[in-house]
Amino acid sequence: MSRFSYVNGRFLPHAQASISIDDRGFLFGDAIYEVWSVRHGHLLDSEGHFERLKRSLGELRIPMPIGVPALRLVIGELLRRNRVDEGLVYLEISRGAARRDHVFPPAGTRPTLVMTAKRVDFAAADARAERGIGVISLPDQRWGRCDIKTVNLLPNVLAKQAAREAGAFEAWQVDDEGFVTEGASSNAWIVTAEGVLVTRPADHAILHGITRATILRLARDAGYDVEERGFTLDEAHGAREAFITSATTFVTPVVRIDDRPVGNGAPGSLGSLLRETYLAAQ
Ligand code: PDD
Question: Which residue has its alpha carbon closest to ligand 1 atom 6?
Answer without folding.
Answer: 185
